[in-house]
Amino acid sequence: MVSFRYHLVSLIAVFMALATGILVGSSLLNQSLIDSLRSTVSTQQTEKDNLRKDLDTLRNEVIYRDQYLDDLDDRLLAGQLAGQRVVLVTMPGAGGGDADGLAEVLARAGAKVTGRIGVDDAFFATAEDPRDLAAKAEAREAILRKNPIPELRGQPAQVQLAGALLTKGGTDRAISAPAKTLLEQLDRGGFISRRGLEDRADLAVIVVGSPPEPPVSATERTEQGMVGLAAALDAAGNGVVVAAPAKAAVGGAMDTIRKAEATRDTISTVDTVETVFGRVATVYALIEQMGGGVGHYGSTADSDGPFPALTPPGKR
């Protein structure tokens, strides 16, 4: 006869077997999971080491590239504009960093930057503008009537400003007293801002910015005014280059100047001024201007190429 004790022992044995099975199964599962995790960690560690090596390689390549470009820039720039004087003319919306970068590169090329002129939207105001801007136009004309440059009396504001800033050569490069007075009055009236400017320059670089988003009503008027100013500067000196960031080359001031009849065949342009390549290209575009050439350079499809010729006709 089966006793209660037998049943109890049997039940205990069954539970012990179940417990043992669970423990054994759990241990085997944990070991498999642990092995899998260890393999994953090892793989990720290897990938991390490889990525670190790739990063170190890229960093070394960037260092090499920067050192290479610095050395190449020195070779390309050294003495290219020696003895030349350049004025920087910044248009509304132009980046200060672009003008600073150009000033540095021009100095490395041996040029003397005679100063900077910042031109305000109000400088291009017309009598047909809304009342406040029309008043600005009248105020500008009053300044011109009262403080003209004698040899340019009666000429538009763009022509008088260009005559104050540039000369085609000769020994008399100092800004005349009437020209200084005109610049001072235009500055006080909020039409321009001045920085430096003791002497007239031989060459001019006009720095323009990207078109505003959304466009403002004054944009088209200002862009057309820039064309007139660029043409006036070109007539007053030995050459003009318009420099702008790539965004300005499509539907912006650069695009307008490249297409305008008054400037497309006489003024050179560079549309990558935010890069060191564009700034060096600006130097060579000035050299091209001095030799009587013209070109449009940069990254856009309608440009003449990324860079002017290193030895333009008439320079060497």
Descriptive notes:
With 316 residues, this protein is of the alpha/beta class. It folds into two domains: 1-77; 82-297, no CATH class. It is built from eight helices and seven strands. It has helices at residues 4-77, 96-108, 131-146, 157-165, 177-188, 218-236, 253-259, 276-290; strands at residues 85-90, 112-119, 192-196, 203-207, 240-243, 268-270, 296-297. A seven-stranded mixed sheet has the order 3-2-1-4-5-6-7, with helices on both faces. The termini are far apart. The model is unreliable at 312-316 (pLDDT under 50).
Describe the biggest sheet? Answer: 7 strands, mixed
Task: Classify the beta-strand content into a percent band.
Answer: 5-15%
Number of E-type strands: 7
Q: Termini distance?
A: 124 Å
Radius of gyration: 35 Å
N-to-C order of helices and strands: HEHEHHHEEHEHEHE
Count every helix, treating DSSP H or I runs of 4 or more residues as helices.
8
What is the general shape? elongated
Q: Averaged pLDDT, please?
A: 83
Share of helix among residues?
40-55%
Structural class: alpha/beta
How do the strands line up in the largest sheet? Answer: 3-2-1-4-5-6-7
Which residues sit in consecutive blocks of at least 5 with pLDDT less than 50?
312-316
> How many individual domains?
2
